[in-house]
């Protein structure tokens, strides 16, 4: 009987995905069940169930997965990989909070909150993991994806349980360098080195990675723009705070990178550039990079504050970084200061985890609100 009910639910959901012009699936960890059809009145319990329905569906319409407020313990990787449904920039897959930050009834508790509890995997993006284990939250294997309004935490593990071992949580990853158009907007990535370390918020191959109005708080590293020579990348109105490895990491991406209205503060390194991944960079035999010849990134209307070091190069989970002068960056209307910034840590205030109100950092428009 249970198999018959499940089959009927699957069939109804598939027909829904085929028939509607605007398609929505709903997820609610409190009242949902993965045996439901994913409607607002009968939501799924897990994001994985909703994504599985998308993966198995047929059509060309865009799909929106709406996540209710609550805690989502990811005990498995959610892989987005449809085989018979195609998406475009206009008709895309959107995974979003039911109540978004700019909605009138939003508060800091409205954000769907993801914590990673799945078993460790023994591979690292297809190869054996020599550091002892990693876990993956959302793995994106398609173009034209938006993730909006979520709060994403690390994993309740010890990051370095013994010498040489590095346990790593990767909440959002995209491995295929042929993919394009990934937007992460109005999300908070938060970690704690003791209770829930978050090794890396976003690591993505391919083109068109847009990070817009996000907060990265106390991660080891916030984001890796991974594919050398990839194009169309953007970071704007984003706060990266307290990175105990580095803020952002660019793997020799093209110099059309749009970087504007960001605050990069209180990090170990502000910016790491993996110069040796691009043939246009000169690298000596001892792996100390010379002056980059072609890749220069324009940094507009931003603030670098209280970072221990500005720029470095290198790579790998062990953070084998070497200091370099900030010769890869061209600054316009940008301030660099050794003075750290303060955050608003009043958790019932709308601007919780944003730069303290009235501070210089607050004037850059960073954070999860697009409407001020």
Question: Explain this structure to me?
Answer:
There is one protein chain. The protein is mainly beta and 372 residues long. It has one domain: Pectate Lyase C-like. It contains two helices and 32 strands. It has a ten-stranded parallel beta sheet with strand order 1-3-7-12-15-18-21-24-27-31, covered by helices on one side. The longest helix has 18 residues, at 2-19. The chain is globular. The model is unreliable at 3-7, 15-20, 277-286 and 288-293 (pLDDT under 50).
Quick structural summary:
The chain has 372 residues and is mainly beta. It is 8% helix and 34% strand.
Radius of gyration: 21 Å
Strand order in the sheet with the most strands: 1-3-7-12-15-18-21-24-27-31
Cα shape: globular
Q: Total number of helical segments? A: 2
Number of strands: 32
The amount of helix comes to: under 10%
Distance between the termini: 53 Å
Number of domains: 1
């Amino acid at each position: 009987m249970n198999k018959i009910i499940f089959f009927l639910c699957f069939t109804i959901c598939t027909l829904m995905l085929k028939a509607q012009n605007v398609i929505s699936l709903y997820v609610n960890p409190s009242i949902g069940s993965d045996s439901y059809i994913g409607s607002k009145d009968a939501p799924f319990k897990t994001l994985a169930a909703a994504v599985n329905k998308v993966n198995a569906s047929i059509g060309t319409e865009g799909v929106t997965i709406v996540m209710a407020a609550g805690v989502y313990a990811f005990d498995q990787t959610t892989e987005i990989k449809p085989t018979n449904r195609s998406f475009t920039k206009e008709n895309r897959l959107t995974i979003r909070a039911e109540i978004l930050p700019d909605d009138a009834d939003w508060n800091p508790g409205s954000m769907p909150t993801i914590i990673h509890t799945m078993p460790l995997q023994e591979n690292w993006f297809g190869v054996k993991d020599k550091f002892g284990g990693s876990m993956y939250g959302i793995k994106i294997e398609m173009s034209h994806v938006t993730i909006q309004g979520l709060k994403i935490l690390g994993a309740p593990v010890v990051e370095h349980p013994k010498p040489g071992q590095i346990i790593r949580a990767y909440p959002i990853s995209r491995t295929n360098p042929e993919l394009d158009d990934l937007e992460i907007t109005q999300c908070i990535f938060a970690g704690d080195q003791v209770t829930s370390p978050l090794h890396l918020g976003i690591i993505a191959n391919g083109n068109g990675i847009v990070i817009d109005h996000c907060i990265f708080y106390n991660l080891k590293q916030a984001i890796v723009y991974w594919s050398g020579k990839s194009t169309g990348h953007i970071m704007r109105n984003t706060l990266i705070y307290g990175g105990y490895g580095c803020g952002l990491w660019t793997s020799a991406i093209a110099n059309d990178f749009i970087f504007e209205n960001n605050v990069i503060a209180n990090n170990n390194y502000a910016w790491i550039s993996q110069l040796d991944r691009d043939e246009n960079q000169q690298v000596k035999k001892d792996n100390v990079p010379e002056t980059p010849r072609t890749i220069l990134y324009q940094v507009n209307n931003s603030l670098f504050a209280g970072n221990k070091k500005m720029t470095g190069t290198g790579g790998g989970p062990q953070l084998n970084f070497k200091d370099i002068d900030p010769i890869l960056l061209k600054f316009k209307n940008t301030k660099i200061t050794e003075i750290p910034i303060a955050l608003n840590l009043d958790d019932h205030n709308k601007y919780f985890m944003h730069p303290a109100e009235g501070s210089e950092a607050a004037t850059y428009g960073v954070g999860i609100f697009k409407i001020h």
